[in-house]
Amino acid sequence: MDELASVDGTIGPADEMTIPITDDGLLRGDGVFEVARLYAGRPFAWDEHVERLRRSAANVRLEFDLDAALAEVDALLARVGTVDGALRLLITRGGRRVAVVGPLPDRPPAVTLGTIQYAPTRVLDAVKSLSYAANMLASRLAGEAGADEALLVTPHGRVLEAPTSAFFYVLDGRLHTPPLADHILDSITRRHVLELTGATARVLHCDQLLELEEAFLASTTREVQPVSAIDGRPLPRAPGPWTTTAADALRRFIEAS
Protein backbone atom coordinates (compact mmCIF):
# COMPACT_ATOMS: atom_id res chain seq x y z
CA MET A 1 0.00 0.00 0.00
CA ASP A 2 1.29 3.47 -0.92
CA GLU A 3 1.02 6.08 1.83
CA LEU A 4 -1.62 8.72 1.18
CA ALA A 5 -1.94 11.91 3.22
CA SER A 6 -4.24 14.84 3.82
CA VAL A 7 -2.85 18.22 4.90
CA ASP A 8 -5.61 20.66 5.87
CA GLY A 9 -7.95 18.80 3.52
CA THR A 10 -5.66 18.54 0.49
CA ILE A 11 -5.04 14.87 -0.35
CA GLY A 12 -2.01 13.49 -2.17
CA PRO A 13 0.92 11.04 -1.96
CA ALA A 14 2.38 11.27 1.53
CA ASP A 15 5.93 11.81 0.33
CA GLU A 16 4.85 14.85 -1.70
CA MET A 17 2.82 16.66 0.96
CA THR A 18 4.38 19.56 2.90
CA ILE A 19 3.95 21.81 5.91
CA PRO A 20 5.82 25.09 6.53
CA ILE A 21 9.27 24.58 8.03
CA THR A 22 8.43 27.30 10.57
CA ASP A 23 5.69 25.13 12.13
CA ASP A 24 6.55 24.45 15.78
CA GLY A 25 5.25 20.93 15.28
CA LEU A 26 8.45 20.41 13.25
CA LEU A 27 10.78 22.83 14.99
CA ARG A 28 9.91 21.86 18.57
CA GLY A 29 7.88 18.65 18.37
CA ASP A 30 4.94 20.68 19.70
CA GLY A 31 1.69 18.99 18.83
CA VAL A 32 -0.41 15.90 19.45
CA PHE A 33 -1.29 12.79 17.49
CA GLU A 34 -3.21 9.52 17.41
CA VAL A 35 -2.71 6.27 15.52
CA ALA A 36 -5.62 3.94 14.80
CA ARG A 37 -5.53 0.59 13.05
CA LEU A 38 -7.63 0.21 9.93
CA TYR A 39 -9.57 -2.99 9.36
CA ALA A 40 -11.13 -3.01 5.88
CA GLY A 41 -10.90 0.77 5.84
CA ARG A 42 -12.51 1.30 9.26
CA PRO A 43 -10.46 2.71 12.17
CA PHE A 44 -10.89 0.54 15.27
CA ALA A 45 -11.95 2.34 18.48
CA TRP A 46 -11.94 5.63 16.59
CA ASP A 47 -14.19 7.43 19.09
CA GLU A 48 -11.73 6.59 21.87
CA HIS A 49 -8.79 7.83 19.80
CA VAL A 50 -10.61 11.07 19.00
CA GLU A 51 -11.46 11.65 22.65
CA ARG A 52 -7.82 11.10 23.68
CA LEU A 53 -6.66 13.47 20.93
CA ARG A 54 -9.05 16.11 22.24
CA ARG A 55 -7.76 15.63 25.81
CA SER A 56 -4.12 15.71 24.70
CA ALA A 57 -4.67 18.97 22.83
CA ALA A 58 -6.47 20.52 25.78
CA ASN A 59 -3.68 19.48 28.15
CA VAL A 60 -1.01 21.24 26.05
CA ARG A 61 -3.31 24.23 25.40
CA LEU A 62 -3.56 23.53 21.67
CA GLU A 63 -6.73 24.76 19.98
CA PHE A 64 -7.77 23.19 16.67
CA ASP A 65 -10.83 22.57 14.53
CA LEU A 66 -11.83 19.02 15.49
CA ASP A 67 -14.79 18.91 13.11
CA ALA A 68 -12.57 19.86 10.18
CA ALA A 69 -9.98 17.25 11.17
CA LEU A 70 -12.60 14.50 11.34
CA ALA A 71 -14.12 15.51 8.01
CA GLU A 72 -10.67 15.40 6.42
CA VAL A 73 -10.04 11.93 7.86
CA ASP A 74 -13.37 10.75 6.43
CA ALA A 75 -12.41 12.10 3.00
CA LEU A 76 -9.01 10.40 3.17
CA LEU A 77 -10.54 7.07 4.19
CA ALA A 78 -13.06 7.32 1.36
CA ARG A 79 -10.15 7.79 -1.04
CA VAL A 80 -8.14 4.78 0.19
CA GLY A 81 -11.10 2.38 0.39
CA THR A 82 -11.29 -0.90 2.29
CA VAL A 83 -7.63 -1.28 3.20
CA ASP A 84 -5.95 -2.81 6.22
CA GLY A 85 -3.31 -0.47 7.57
CA ALA A 86 -2.74 2.40 9.98
CA LEU A 87 -4.27 5.87 10.19
CA ARG A 88 -2.20 8.62 11.83
CA LEU A 89 -3.73 12.00 12.70
CA LEU A 90 -1.46 14.86 13.79
CA ILE A 91 -2.29 18.35 14.99
CA THR A 92 0.68 20.73 14.98
CA ARG A 93 1.24 23.89 17.00
CA GLY A 94 1.25 25.74 13.70
CA GLY A 95 -2.38 24.72 13.21
CA ARG A 96 -1.83 22.04 10.56
CA ARG A 97 -4.15 19.03 10.45
CA VAL A 98 -2.25 16.08 8.97
CA ALA A 99 -3.73 12.63 8.36
CA VAL A 100 -1.72 9.77 6.88
CA VAL A 101 -2.80 6.27 5.85
CA GLY A 102 -0.12 3.67 5.26
CA PRO A 103 0.80 0.02 5.73
CA LEU A 104 1.40 -1.60 9.10
CA PRO A 105 5.01 -2.08 10.16
CA ASP A 106 6.42 -5.58 9.80
CA ARG A 107 6.39 -7.44 13.12
CA PRO A 108 8.10 -10.72 14.08
CA PRO A 109 5.87 -13.41 15.66
CA ALA A 110 7.49 -12.66 19.03
CA VAL A 111 9.65 -9.80 20.25
CA THR A 112 12.76 -9.59 22.42
CA LEU A 113 13.10 -6.68 24.85
CA GLY A 114 16.05 -4.85 26.36
CA THR A 115 15.63 -2.67 29.45
CA ILE A 116 16.46 1.01 28.94
CA GLN A 117 16.49 3.56 31.77
CA TYR A 118 13.88 6.25 31.23
CA ALA A 119 12.41 9.05 33.34
CA PRO A 120 8.84 10.02 32.33
CA THR A 121 8.15 13.71 31.72
CA ARG A 122 5.34 14.27 34.21
CA VAL A 123 4.20 17.54 32.71
CA LEU A 124 3.15 15.51 29.65
CA ASP A 125 1.08 12.97 31.59
CA ALA A 126 -2.09 12.12 29.63
CA VAL A 127 -0.65 13.72 26.48
CA LYS A 128 0.14 11.78 23.31
CA SER A 129 2.66 14.32 22.13
CA LEU A 130 4.71 14.69 18.94
CA SER A 131 7.76 14.92 21.24
CA TYR A 132 8.70 11.24 20.82
CA ALA A 133 12.47 11.53 20.33
CA ALA A 134 13.24 9.92 23.71
CA ASN A 135 11.00 6.95 22.91
CA MET A 136 12.59 6.46 19.50
CA LEU A 137 16.09 6.70 20.97
CA ALA A 138 15.18 4.06 23.55
CA SER A 139 14.22 1.69 20.72
CA ARG A 140 17.53 2.36 18.96
CA LEU A 141 19.54 1.78 22.14
CA ALA A 142 17.75 -1.52 22.70
CA GLY A 143 18.53 -2.48 19.10
CA GLU A 144 22.21 -1.68 19.61
CA ALA A 145 22.15 -4.07 22.59
CA GLY A 146 20.70 -6.84 20.42
CA ALA A 147 17.00 -6.59 21.32
CA ASP A 148 14.04 -5.96 19.03
CA GLU A 149 12.49 -3.30 21.26
CA ALA A 150 13.06 -1.39 24.50
CA LEU A 151 11.41 -1.97 27.84
CA LEU A 152 11.43 1.35 29.69
CA VAL A 153 12.35 1.33 33.37
CA THR A 154 12.74 4.23 35.79
CA PRO A 155 16.08 5.13 37.41
CA HIS A 156 14.62 3.53 40.55
CA GLY A 157 13.94 0.26 38.73
CA ARG A 158 10.18 0.35 38.15
CA VAL A 159 9.12 -1.26 34.89
CA LEU A 160 6.92 1.01 32.76
CA GLU A 161 6.11 0.13 29.14
CA ALA A 162 7.68 -0.15 25.70
CA PRO A 163 8.26 3.06 23.72
CA THR A 164 5.02 2.67 21.74
CA SER A 165 3.28 -0.24 23.48
CA ALA A 166 1.80 -1.28 26.79
CA PHE A 167 3.58 -4.07 28.68
CA PHE A 168 1.70 -7.01 30.23
CA TYR A 169 3.30 -9.73 32.28
CA VAL A 170 2.41 -12.91 34.16
CA LEU A 171 3.68 -13.23 37.73
CA ASP A 172 2.43 -15.65 40.38
CA GLY A 173 0.07 -17.15 37.83
CA ARG A 174 -1.83 -13.90 37.16
CA LEU A 175 -1.79 -11.28 34.39
CA HIS A 176 -0.73 -7.75 35.31
CA THR A 177 0.35 -4.46 33.75
CA PRO A 178 2.17 -1.47 35.28
CA PRO A 179 -0.19 1.15 36.76
CA LEU A 180 -1.03 4.51 35.19
CA ALA A 181 0.24 6.12 38.39
CA ASP A 182 3.76 5.32 37.15
CA HIS A 183 3.19 7.91 34.38
CA ILE A 184 2.71 5.52 31.48
CA LEU A 185 0.42 6.23 28.54
CA ASP A 186 -3.27 5.45 29.01
CA SER A 187 -3.19 3.12 26.02
CA ILE A 188 -6.53 2.35 24.38
CA THR A 189 -5.45 -1.22 23.60
CA ARG A 190 -4.27 -1.55 27.22
CA ARG A 191 -7.74 -0.57 28.40
CA HIS A 192 -9.40 -3.20 26.25
CA VAL A 193 -6.98 -5.95 27.26
CA LEU A 194 -7.57 -5.13 30.93
CA GLU A 195 -11.33 -5.37 30.45
CA LEU A 196 -11.19 -8.54 28.35
CA THR A 197 -8.77 -10.50 30.51
CA GLY A 198 -9.33 -9.30 34.06
CA ALA A 199 -5.67 -8.29 34.33
CA THR A 200 -4.75 -6.01 37.21
CA ALA A 201 -2.46 -3.00 37.52
CA ARG A 202 0.57 -3.91 39.63
CA VAL A 203 3.98 -2.35 40.18
CA LEU A 204 6.84 -4.41 38.76
CA HIS A 205 10.50 -3.94 39.68
CA CYS A 206 13.45 -4.83 37.48
CA ASP A 207 14.64 -7.51 39.86
CA GLN A 208 11.32 -9.31 39.35
CA LEU A 209 11.82 -9.67 35.60
CA LEU A 210 13.66 -12.95 36.24
CA GLU A 211 10.47 -14.34 37.81
CA LEU A 212 8.13 -13.62 34.87
CA GLU A 213 6.30 -16.61 33.44
CA GLU A 214 5.29 -14.86 30.21
CA ALA A 215 4.84 -11.34 28.85
CA PHE A 216 3.47 -9.49 25.84
CA LEU A 217 3.22 -6.04 24.29
CA ALA A 218 -0.14 -4.55 23.35
CA SER A 219 -0.79 -1.62 21.03
CA THR A 220 -2.96 -0.41 18.20
CA THR A 221 -0.67 -1.71 15.47
CA ARG A 222 0.67 -4.79 17.30
CA GLU A 223 -2.60 -5.97 18.88
CA VAL A 224 -1.00 -8.59 21.21
CA GLN A 225 2.60 -9.60 20.52
CA PRO A 226 4.39 -12.23 22.65
CA VAL A 227 7.69 -11.40 24.33
CA SER A 228 10.23 -14.19 23.96
CA ALA A 229 13.14 -12.74 25.97
CA ILE A 230 14.08 -9.80 28.20
CA ASP A 231 17.71 -8.67 28.45
CA GLY A 232 18.77 -11.85 26.72
CA ARG A 233 16.97 -14.19 29.11
CA PRO A 234 14.33 -16.35 27.36
CA LEU A 235 10.89 -16.42 28.94
CA PRO A 236 9.51 -19.88 29.73
CA ARG A 237 6.60 -19.51 27.29
CA ALA A 238 6.18 -17.30 24.22
CA PRO A 239 3.32 -17.29 23.68
CA GLY A 240 2.00 -18.66 26.95
CA PRO A 241 -1.66 -19.33 27.80
CA TRP A 242 -2.34 -15.83 29.12
CA THR A 243 -0.87 -14.27 25.99
CA THR A 244 -2.87 -16.56 23.71
CA THR A 245 -6.07 -15.87 25.63
CA ALA A 246 -5.50 -12.10 25.48
CA ALA A 247 -4.72 -12.20 21.74
CA ASP A 248 -7.81 -14.28 20.97
CA ALA A 249 -10.09 -12.15 23.14
CA LEU A 250 -8.86 -8.91 21.60
CA ARG A 251 -9.22 -10.26 18.07
CA ARG A 252 -12.82 -11.39 18.77
CA PHE A 253 -13.61 -7.99 20.26
CA ILE A 254 -12.21 -6.19 17.21
CA GLU A 255 -14.17 -8.42 14.82
CA ALA A 256 -17.39 -7.82 16.75
CA SER A 257 -16.94 -4.03 16.86
From TrEMBL:
Record-level Gene Ontology MF annotations: lyase activity
Keyword hit for Lyase: yes
Keyword Lyase: yes
Lineage, opening ranks: Bacteria, Bacillati, Actinomycetota, Actinomycetes, Pseudonocardiales
Keyword line: Lyase
Organism: Pseudonocardia adelaidensis
Name this protein carries in UniProt: Aminodeoxychorismate lyase
PANTHER family referenced in this protein's UniProt entry, alphabetically: AMINO-ACID AMINOTRANSFERASE, AMINODEOXYCHORISMATE LYASE
Family to which the UniProt record says this protein belongs: Belongs to the class-IV pyridoxal-phosphate-dependent aminotransferase family.
